[in-house]
Every structure is written in structure tokens, then in C-alpha cells.
């Protein structure tokens, strides 16, 4: 089973700042099968990025994904107040999915 | 509007069974694989299992933690996916989300609001 490790665990930033979230896989992941989700308290997760770099429907262009192999990154170019949340990466392989443990982006 | 609505959660004793339902609307349910994801209180997301569309055999896959105890099925005529949970353990306590698998099996593009399952004596 591929293990995804996200870092940092918590990111303390101010609105307007740039956020860089990391997701590292224990073995190579196809870029086609790497996704990112956002979850706010009391809400279901929401798909942000699929295929490592494609934005899902309705996702603002301040969110971008990049990476390949074992290292992937989610970047939020300028944090808006509604972006403070927990972010999860996810991979698909061998007919199963795994999630990273999450990165919390909190207001500094 | 594309929507998934879970139901059937509640309090159940260890060792007992519970069946969750996921009712879909706003899209052609039979064209999509469906998956279940859970989240224990204060914890991260854990994939539970999924069922392929009939076009891909309607077969299922499960996480090791639930294999042999949980069963996913679907009724395309009613646009409902089910999660039958048997031999429940306290560690199965979680919010259970139903999700639509995006075409190409890459990710989960639609999520329900979740239903809470509490396993406790």
C-alpha cells in the first residue's frame, strides 16, 4: 500500500500570503491518480485538484497543483479567508485509494 | 443539481449490523462507480471501498480494515448505493461519506454530507 505523507502538519499564514503544501508518496504515483481535497469544519471534503494539476469544476485559479513521481505540491497563490481549512492529498492504485493525514492551514 | 444524500447512520452495539444508503440525483447513477469514505472523530479520511458501474462488471473492492465485514451494493433502478456493515467494532465509529468516482477512477468529485455511525455498548 502506498503511504502518503503530508507536510507540514499545520501551516500558519495570513490572508494574502502564499501557501505551499507538500505530499510525498512512499513509492511512485501516476500523476493521473493524484488528487487534492479541501475540508472545512463540519463539511464534507471538496475536490480541488485531480490528475495532479487539473482544477476541478468551480475551483478558483489561485489553487494549483504540481509534481510527479513521489513528490506533489498544492499551492494557494494568495490566501483568501475562506481558504483556511484542512487539505488532503489522495492517490489511486491497485484498485484502492489512500489519503494523506492532512495539512491544516490556519490563520496566523 | 448533482447530489448524494446518505442515510441510515446511528448508534449500534459492537458486533451488530447496520446498513447505510446513498441516494443520488442529478446525474445518470448507473454510469458511475461509487465509493464510501469514512472519517473517525477528529481524524483524517479513510477510504472504505467502492463498487464499479455495471459497464465494468459492478464488482467491488475494499480496504483491508473492513474486508469480509462490509459489503457495498447498488440499485441502479433506484439510484442508490448501499454499505452493509456487519460485525461492527468500536473503531468503525466515524462519519461515513458516499462519493461519486470521477470518470477515469482518478478521484471523488461529488460527496454526500455524511452520516454518523457510532459503535458503542
Element layout with pairings:
The complex is a heterodimer of chains A (108) and B (121).
Chain A: E1 4-7, E2 10-13, E3 19-29, E4 34-39, E5 46-50, E6 54-55, E7 63-76, E8 86-93, E9 96-99, E10 103-107
Chain B: E1 3-7, E2 10-12, E3 18-25, E4 34-39, E5 45-51, E6 60-62, E7 70-75, E8 80-85, E9 94-101, E10 108-111, E11 115-119
Parallel strand pairs in B: 2-11
Antiparallel strand pairs in B: 1-3, 3-8, 4-5, 4-9, 5-6, 7-8, 9-10, 9-11
How does this model look, in words?
The complex is a heterodimer of chains A (108) and B (121). With 108 residues, chain A is an all-beta fold. Chain A has no helices and ten strands. In chain A, strands 2, 4, 5, 6, 8, 9 and 10 form a seven-stranded mixed β-sheet that branches. In chain A, strands 1-3-7 form a three-stranded antiparallel β-sheet, with no helix packed on it. In chain A, a hairpin with a 2-residue loop joins strand 8 and strand 9 (96-99). With 121 residues, chain B is mainly beta. Chain B is built from no helices and eleven strands. Chain B has strands at 3-7, 10-12, 18-25, 34-39, 45-51, 60-62, 70-75, 80-85, 94-101, 108-111, 115-119. In chain B, the strands form two sheets. In chain B, strands 2, 4, 5, 6, 9, 10 and 11 form a seven-stranded mixed β-sheet that branches. Chain B has a four-stranded antiparallel β-sheet with strand order 1-3-8-7, with no helix packed on it. In chain B, strand 5 (45-51) and strand 6 (60-62) form a beta hairpin. The model of chain B has no long low-confidence stretch (mean pLDDT 97). The A-B interface holds A 1, 32-33, 35, 37, 39, 44-47, 50-51, 56-57, 88, 90, 92, 95-102 and B 35, 37, 44-47, 50, 61, 63-64, 97, 102, 104-109, 111-114.
Amino acid at each position: 500500500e502506498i503511504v502518503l505523507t503530508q507536510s507540514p502538519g499545520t501551516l500558519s499564514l495570513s490572508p494574502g500570503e502564499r501557501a505551499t503544501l507538500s505530499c510525498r508518496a512512499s513509492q511512485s504515483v501516476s500523476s493521473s491518480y493524484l488528487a487534492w481535497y479541501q475540508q472545512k469544519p463540519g463539511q464534507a471534503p471538496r475536490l480541488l485538484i485531480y490528475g495532479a494539476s487539473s482544477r476541478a469544476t468551480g475551483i478558483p485559479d489561485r489553487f494549483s497543483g504540481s509534481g510527479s513521481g513521489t513528490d506533489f505540491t498544492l499551492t494557494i497563490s494568495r490566501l483568501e479567508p475562506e481558504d483556511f481549512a484542512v487539505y488532503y492529498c489522495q492517490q489511486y492504485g491497485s484498485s484502492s485509494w489512500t489519503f494523506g493525514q492532512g495539512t491544516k492551514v490556519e490563520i496566523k | 443539481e448533482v447530489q448524494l444524500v446518505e442515510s441510515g447512520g446511528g448508534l449500534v452495539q459492537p458486533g451488530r449490523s447496520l446498513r447505510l444508503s446513498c441516494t443520488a440525483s442529478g446525474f445518470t447513477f448507473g454510469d458511475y462507480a461509487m465509493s464510501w469514505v469514512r472519517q473517525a472523530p477528529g481524524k483524517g479520511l479513510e477510504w472504505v471501498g467502492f463498487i464499479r458501474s455495471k459497464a465494468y462488471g459492478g464488482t467491488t473492492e475494499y480496504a483491508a480494515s473492513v474486508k469480509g465485514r462490509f459489503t457495498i451494493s447498488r440499485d441502479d433502478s433506484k439510484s442508490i448505493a448501499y454499505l452493509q456493515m456487519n460485525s461492527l467494532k468500536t473503531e468503525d465509529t466515524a462519519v461515513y461519506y458516499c462519493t461519486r468516482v470521477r470518470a477515469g477512477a482518478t478521484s471523488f468529485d461529488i460527496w454526500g454530507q455524511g452520516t454518523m455511525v457510532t459503535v458503542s455498548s
